[in-house]
Structures are given as structure tokens and as C-alpha cells.
Write a structure and sequence with these properties.
311 residues; alpha/beta; six-stranded mixed β-sheet; two-stranded antiparallel ribbon; 8 helices; 10 strands; 28% helix
């Protein structure tokens, strides 16, 4: 995508629909492993064969855009030891949240344009991300949602780490973002983003890792659990926000498989990306700039993670 590690994905052939039972599974927080979903694999060309289907789209609830979204303040260093979480259903579980981009990346273009190894090739260390037409930056959105998501998960007893928390001038680079989750032995990692596509392209989608093996990348052990994690997030994101799956990526399933993202290729733990909406579309932008909707988005992601970790 223009603001991520690669150009925008070309439309893929629609993903094959899973059995009707999968739809019921998506809307419930208690789906078991498998849950009637089919395994998506990518061959040498990286094309996905099948992926599970997200639930039937719901009509998004109209939300008035906030005229001036407040920016997320800088926090203490993300690598500092997090506070002890209360006992809860996620006690003993570790979740890493990866807020996409960095609000100050644009001040360090030489550094973020540096090429890093993504396992199957080389790409930019990081990118600036996109923004709404009103100037609300994706990097501000992702950090705000990450803070909300962190609080929800900690309230359930999870140990939560952020790849960064307003504590560095640029980045981290995509390879370091993957390494943070790996070294934490995270039970789940979610990278939070918002897309920057054409007007009229609306909705969210969850990006799943393709099956890749080459260089320093080998996703064979995380493809299936990452698909389970992503499917649950997609279904519960719909329920929490009322947003529909993307009408331009993923064949309206809310799921997409990619092999060109270093954050996924280099991960050794279950990980997905979520594009919460399209910042360049006025209707989606009205949602993304609403603090109330961002809380719903965080809740939907948290519900999906919790469902996955509880099995």
C-alpha cells in the first residue's frame, strides 16, 4: 500500500467462501480452533488459495467526524517494564501491539528510506503512513487505538507491550517491529493501521501472513494460528464497530493474504495487520476521526484477541 511497506495491492480473485458454520463462529467469542475455516496457503507465487470468510457486512452506524482529533501524547519508553496486570481471563498471556508508522517519520526520510532485510528481499525501514484530507495522520490514529487496546487487554490480565509508544524519533524499522514480538514470545501480535486508498473504497480488512520461506523468513508455523487470530478479529470488529469488510480488498471477506510485508514475513509468533478503514474516503474518515468510534475499534480488536487466546 502506498503508505505501508509496498504499493497498493492489485485486486485479487475473490477468496473462496467457507462453510456457513464459519459465519456463526465469527460472530461468537468462543470459536474453537479450525471452526470450519479452510487453510489459506501461498505457493511460490504467494497467491492465496483459500481463506476463511468474515461475517456478513453490517451497515455502519453514522458517526459525526470530530473537528480536531486530539493527538496522542508521548508516553514513557515502550521497552520499559509494563505495570503488573490484574488477574483476569488473559493472565499469563503476552500480547504485542504494533502501532503502524510514527508521527515523526516525515522528519527522518533518509533513515526510514534505508533498506532492511524482510527475509525474502529488501524494503524501506518504515514509511510515513497516510492521513485524512483534514490532516489527521495515520500514525496518530494507530497510537491512539493502540493505547485504548492496551488498556482493554490489561484489564483482562494480559501482559501488553507496544513496539513503540511515542518514545523514539522515527520507526521502528519493520524488521525490528517483528523482532520485538518474537523476543517477547508473544501469544499474539496485532499491527494497527488505516489505509490510504481512493474515494469510494471503504471498510476494514485484516492482513494475514502468506506461507513464505526464504532468507530469514519462514512463516510455516504461524500461517494457521495467524489466520485463526485474524478471522476472530474480523468477525468481532464487525460486531463492535458496525463497519463492513472492505469493498476493494479481500473479496468482501474482510481478509487478505500478503507475502510482501516484513512485519509478517519475519514474525515467528502469530501476527496480523488490521487496516481499520480508508482515511482518504470522507465517510470512513468520519469514523476514524471519532474518539467514540476508535474506542469501538479497539474493543473489536481486543475481543478478537481475547477470543483467540481463550480458544
Amino acid at each position: 500500500m502506498r503508505h505501508h511497506e509496498s504499493p497498493p495491492p492489485t485486486p485479487r480473485r475473490p477468496l473462496r467462501l467457507a462453510a456457513a458454520a464459519a459465519l456463526l463462529c465469527l460472530g461468537s467469542a468462543g470459536c474453537g480452533d479450525g471452526g470450519g475455516t479452510a487453510q489459506a496457503q501461498a505457493g511460490p507465487s504467494g497467491g492465496a488459495a483459500t481463506t476463511p470468510v468474515a461475517p456478513a457486512p453490517l451497515s455502519p452506524a453514522p458517526t459525526k467526524a470530530a473537528p480536531s482529533p486530539s493527538k496522542s501524547p508521548a508516553k514513557s519508553p515502550s521497552h520499559a517494564k509494563p505495570p503488573s496486570a490484574p488477574d483476569g481471563p488473559l493472565s499469563g498471556r503476552t500480547v504485542v501491539i504494533d502501532p503502524g508508522h510514527n508521527p515523526r517519520n516525515h522528519l527522518h526520510t533518509a533513515a526510514i528510506n534505508r533498506q532492511v532485510d524482510i527475509g525474502t528481499g529488501h524494503k524501506e525501514c518504515d514509511t510515513t503512513g497516510t492521513a485524512t484530507n483534514g490532516g489527521y495522520a495515520e500514525a496518530e490514529f494507530t497510537l491512539d487505538v493502540a493505547h485504548r487496546l492496551r488498556d482493554l487487554l490489561r484489564a483482562q490480565g494480559a501482559k501488553v507491550l507496544l513496539t513503540y509508544d511515542g518514545d523514539r524519533e522515527f520507526g521502528p524499522c519493520v524488521d525490528e517491529r517483528a523482532r520485538i514480538g518474537n523476543e517477547a514470545h508473544a501469544d499474539a501480535v496485532v499491527s494497527v493501521h488505516a489505509d490510504g486508498s481512493a474515494v469510494g473504497n471503504r471498510g476494514f480488512h485484516v492482513i494475514l501472513p502468506a506461507r513464505v520461506s526464504g532468507g530469514g523468513a519462514n512463516t510455516s508455523k504461524i500461517v494457521e494460528p495467524s489466520r485463526d487470530l485474524g478471522t476472530r478479529i474480523a468477525g468481532l470488529f464487525v460486531r463492535s464497530t458496525g463497519s463492513s469488510p472492505s469493498n476493494y480488498v479481500g473479496g468482501k471477506t474482510g481478509l487478505d493474504v500478503r507475502k510482501d510485508l516484513g512485519g509478517l514475513n519475519l514474525s515467528t509468533v502469530p501476527k496480523v495487520f488490521i487496516e481499520c478503514g480508508n482515511m482518504r474516503d470522507p465517510e470512513d474518515a468520519a469514523l476514524l476521526t471519532s474518539p467514540g468510534w476508535r474506542q469501538k475499534a479497539a474493543q473489536g480488536i481486543a475481543d478478537g484477541i481475547s477470543s483467540y487466546l481463550k480458544g
